[in-house]
Amino acid sequence: MKISIQINEGPYQHQASDTAYQFAKAAIERGHEIFRVFFYHDGVNNASRFTIPPQDDRNIVNQWAELGIKNANGEPELVVCVAAALRRGILDESEAIKNGIDCNNIHPAFRISGLGQLIEAGIQSDRLVVFGD
Amino acid sequence: MKISIQINEGPYQHQASDTAYQFAKAAIERGHEIFRVFFYHDGVNNASRFTIPPQDDRNIVNQWAELGIKNANGEPELVVCVAAALRRGILDESEAIKNGIDCNNIHPAFRISGLGQLIEAGIQSDRLVVFGD
Amino acid sequence: MAIKKFMYLNRRSSFGTVYAIESLEVVLVAAAFDQDVSLAFIDDGVYQIIEGQNTNGIGMKNFSKTFHALGDYEINKLYVSAESLEERGLSADDLMPLVYEDEDDNWVEKSSVKVVSNAEISKIMSKQDVCFSF
Amino acid sequence: MAIKKFMYLNRRSSFGTVYAIESLEVVLVAAAFDQDVSLAFIDDGVYQIIEGQNTNGIGMKNFSKTFHALGDYEINKLYVSAESLEERGLSADDLMPLVYEDEDDNWVEKSSVKVVSNAEISKIMSKQDVCFSF
Amino acid sequence: MLHTVNKSSFERNSLKSCINTIDDTSVILLIEDGVISATKNINSSMIANLANQGRVYALQGDVEARGVSSKLVDNIKLVDYTGFVDLVVEHGTSVSWV
Amino acid sequence: MLHTVNKSSFERNSLKSCINTIDDTSVILLIEDGVISATKNINSSMIANLANQGRVYALQGDVEARGVSSKLVDNIKLVDYTGFVDLVVEHGTSVSWV
């Protein structure tokens, strides 16, 4: 089955991203396809390549990245909502340049796109599961 | 009176930072001293200089910065907990270099420091008010 | 492409958290996709469409007017829990008069807001393909 | 410098949100400041110190053992709401046996956990100079 | 003491816990979504008595934002942010029921 | 349908709202702090009947993390993350009571 996931909360503060990750991993192991993971609200903070958790703790951003969720064109299907991301300071190279900021902080396993990608995930997938606060 | 503030949530997702800002502004206008604002948990995300809210919305990070809360040595007293910040990807230059990251994202009106600064704020201030989820 | 039924479940009030405004942003985008869209307002979500919101005192954007735009996008199924209203001492009269023009009925202006029981919301929910919660 | 009375108010369980572990991190730092420290566990906060937590299944750090270290830092006033325990079907026997050695009483090992009524927590709270909530 | 509550009594248990724990001299300030608890609703009995004693405040900006100015329980005292600051100064230790 | 609830019935109203709204064929999966509602406590009557009908699941990892394995209401079905995936696949549309 094609399953998509929406994540509304950032890493560490709430368990949402942890649970969603365990769910996505289990779904893949079960032979399902994760069509897309859409990071919305504070969920966009899961995409920061700047996170440095303590050594004895899990690295949530890297866990997501290592799942390697991509589409047939090899593009990441860990998708970060652009409006929510800008509001919270998650930038890719193009948004950084556009806004005159010297640097980006998005992890390369993620990509920034519009809210239409969430609707599309709902249309294209057999199931959509939301994880939030 | 000396008043300190603890903020547990990031910008936009929760009203906590907005309310704390309005409170701090009113306290200063009332002639009180804001001894320190300590950003903990997701509160550290208030310190990102990368945030770009929509043009018709408030810029919470800049609002805090414009309050210009500093100590007698001219150092910012908008203090971000280092452990919480690293976990969530808020870095100053020194932490970025130490962790091999090419860039920092902290707004210059804030500084990163340890949890001891929160305890010290509790000791030194006449009042401490917490804003959270 | 088959039309899917999408429900947006709104359970929180507007300014304490960002969920309400960012939910509305999704709904407006969804309008472009020609799907079947319903909004459910239960629990404190009913406060999202209460009449007379004024954010001057809190320095935040008053986006409640944006709900009036939904009708123009043919989003006109806003289900409000009667029980949630009643528990909160509210009635349908306290809500914003959100309307749409019915193209199948000579463009007559009709109300988009339907106050229904939880049992009815349950039935409507059961027919959805996708439920977004914020 | 005068000693101040600090209370840490814990109202949430351990793994659903980060507040519990980051609160404990503050308490451990506070120990170095020689202030008077009390911890209150009410509502779902009582689950923070329940015996037998095992996080193997959720991929998160089990920091519950860290509570055992508090006694070594002379943090030995852990007040647990009797009403909160009872509502949750729990009793003092379900809690971790957290102890300290009393330097004023020949280093006898004593319990750091005191199950008290909300009325008693209220009295203790009234005497605090600072209350941290997470 | 000053106790602040920032969530609706419908969504969370924080107001109930606060009321269960405060002493006779404490006051409550409802802020953010907490002002929903200042309205006449099925939970109003939780605060009606305290309000009659003049011990319940609500942040005016939050009340107006939520469109409930005309629906408040009797004897709730409205304050602005300056009033919030004054309450913090007057009432000693602050406890946030976040 | 599958309804997930991730908060304790003591802290929030989400379980109550879920139960008030679901139809007779829906099942509930308690995850994260939601598993607290799977324990024997003063709120247990909310789910006891649904559990007896075999319609209440709880995520085992979350139950064990919170140390409440021995305190569950009768007939709660424990699942791991794979079981969670299977519930999503079997029960059609998922609703998250976040």
Q: If you had to describe this structure to a student in words, what would you say it looks like?
A:
The complex is a heterohexamer, with 2 copies of chain A (133 residues), 2 copies of chain C (134 residues) and 2 copies of chain E (98 residues). With 133 residues, chain A is α/β, with parallel strands linked by helices. Helices cover 33% and strands 20% of the residues of chain A. Chain A has 5 helices and 5 strands; from the N terminus they run E-H-E-H-E-H-H-E-H-E. The mean pLDDT of chain A is 98. By secondary structure, chain C is an alpha/beta fold. Chain C has helices spanning 19-30, 82-87, 118-126, and strands at 5-10, 36-41, 78-81, 99-102, 108-111, 113-116, 130-133. Chain C has a 5-stranded parallel β-sheet. In chain C, strands 4-5 form a two-stranded antiparallel sheet. Chain C is globular and about 45 Å long. The two termini of chain C are 26 Å apart. In chain E, strands 4-3-2-1-5 form a 5-stranded parallel β-sheet. Chain E is built from 4 helices and 5 strands. Chain E has helices at residues 14-21, 45-52, 60-65, 81-90, and strands spanning 2-5, 27-30, 56-59, 77-79, 94-96. Chain E has one domain: 3-Layer(aba) Sandwich (Hypothetical Protein Ychn, Chain: A). Chains in contact: A-B, A-C, A-D, A-F, B-C, B-D, B-E, C-E, C-F, D-E, D-F, E-F. Chains A and C meet through helix 5 of A and helix 1 and strand 7 of C.
Furnish the topology, listing elements before pairings.
The complex is a heterohexamer, with 2 copies of chain A (about 130 residues), 2 copies of chain C (about 130 residues) and 2 copies of chain E (about 100 residues).
Chain A: E1 2-7, H1 16-29, E2 33-39, H2 60-67, E3 78-81, H3 82-88, H4 93-98, E4 110-113, H5 116-124, E5 127-131
Parallel strand pairs in A: 1-2, 1-5, 2-3, 3-4
Helix pairs in contact in A: 1-2
Chain C: E1 5-10, H1 19-30, E2 36-41, E3 78-81, H2 82-87, E4 99-102, E5 108-111, E6 113-116, H3 118-126, E7 130-133
Parallel strand pairs in C: 1-2, 1-7, 2-3, 3-6
Antiparallel strand pairs in C: 4-5
Chain E: E1 2-5, H1 14-21, E2 27-30, H2 45-52, E3 56-59, H3 60-65, E4 77-79, H4 81-90, E5 94-96
Parallel strand pairs in E: 1-2, 1-5, 2-3, 3-4
